[in-house]
Amino acid sequence: MLPRSSKPPALLAGSNSGSLPVVVTVAVFLSIALYNSIELLIMISLSFNKHRGVYFWSLLLSTAAGVIPFTISNLFDFFNVPPLWLTLLLSSIGFSFMIPGQSVVLYSRLHLVSNNYTILRALRYLIIIDTVILVTPTIVLYWGSVYISTKHWTQAFHIHEQIQIAWFSAQEFLISSFYILETVKLIRAHPGRGRRLTIILYELLAINLVAILLDIALLALQYSRLYYFQVIFKALVYSVKLKLEFAVLGRLVSFVGLCHATTVVREYPSFITTVDVSSVGND
Q: Which domain holds residue 34?
């Protein structure tokens, strides 16, 4: 999210103030983000028989209330579609669900590979606290930078923007790293289960690596002062990451099902919402 008064040259206003390559790039990125989101909503509706659980709701809200309004707000902003308050409202709602929602999606499947309830609980509290202390100031500074539009508000927004994007990226990296480590432990604990488990492991590692690389690309754009382009790219990145997470759960269900085919079913503490394997479609 970026105040209009702070956009870099060639991205100051609507399509007429940018070069054709800029307009095409923005249109392509946002169109792909919308396409990914709509496709994911269709996949969710077809794959889940029971509409419940942390994973289902975090995935649904991150897409429907996160990526979609965030992408639409960027379309309105870039092409100068009035009124301004509607653009700001859609952007604020989308940001609030899209960014923290990605961390919740990551968190929601960790119980499939880890019995370390202390770390699971700590990660849950980390997500909640970070959402409160980072999202709220971002939205306040965003609106203030646009409507008050003083130097101090704009500077405060840019500083906080750099902090929150770095922090949320680090948070997602932490959760993904923990997930990768636990997955490696799980497959080492069940040797000789065949080629399929090895393939699943490498697929899971590859998907998480791609997600981490996308976060690095966002950070590179942010700290290269390509702020508005970073915002446009962010919508695409999070739509791709959510689709990857949807694929991850299918692989995890298959993986855990194979690993525990001959073992006793795990019991989970009350704060963990387990996944009904029968309600999730696999590839």
A: 20-113+172-263
Q: How far is CA 53 from the centre of its chain?
A: 18
Q: What would the DSSP string read from start to end of 216-258? A: HHHHHHHHTT-HHHHHHHHHHHHHHHHHHHHHHHHHHHHHHHH
Helices (H), 48-150: 54-61, 68-78, 84-108, 117-130, 136-147
With 0-12 CB in 10 A as exposed, 13-18 as middle and 19+ as buried, what is 53?
Answer: middle
Work out the number of other CB atoms within 10 angstroms of the CB of residue 194: 9
Contact 90, 100 (CB under 8 A): no
The pLDDT tens digits for 90-101 are 999 999 999 999
pLDDT in tens, 132-147: 999 999 999 999 988 8
Domain total for the chain? 1
Is residue 106 in some structural domain? yes
- Comparing 55 with 186, the larger pLDDT belongs to 55
Convert the pLDDT of each residue in 108-126 to its tens digit.
888 887 888 899 999 999 9
Does some domain include residue 219? yes
Q: Is residue 118 part of a domain?
A: no
- Residue 192, CA atoms < 13 Å, CB-side half-sphere: 0
Q: Does the predicted model carry a pTM greater than 0.85?
A: no
Give a yes or no: residue 125 inside a domain.
no
